[in-house]
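seq as requested:
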Amino acid sequence: MPNDILDLFRQTHALLEGHFVLRSGLHSRQFFQCALLLQHPRIAEQVCGGLAEKLRGIECDAVISPALGGIVVGHEVGRALGKRHIFAEKEDGKLVLRRGFVISPGERFIVVEDVVTRGGRVQETIGIVRQHGGIVAAAGTLVDRSGGAIPDFGCPFVSLVRLEVDAFEADRLPPELAALPLTRPGSK
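struct tokens:
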């Protein structure tokens, strides 16, 4: 499965090569631009359905995702599981629940995202669920690129594919990476 998923990223030009700053602040030679992959409904259904299958045994009432990257993933996972999907979005630089979305006390959620490196957006979304009295049953992502430093979300963490992708602190860049022009292609 990992090679099939990587092939889909390559076919849709969603696996970018160069010098990138990730939302986590780390630098990398590769960037997974999931929007380019997920713009194709059949591919979105296929890959998100694969993640949903891995999450199917986890009892939940709904799916929540952080905007922007997680919206399509959350919607498709919710559809595959037959659950409603809501999302958190940025307001004044942090994620919040808006648009009349409600989390009821005791409601069980699966939090999903497109790509996880350090898991900051997933953790922020988990915080929103808990702040509203909800329960986080699990977290899931299409691509886990945490490189063995898997974040502890305090719940099961499931990925469609786990990849070892080099990521570097800004002050520890390999010379060949530092020589490349810097790009910030992710959502703000």
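Residues 1 and 161 are 8 Å apart (CA to CA).
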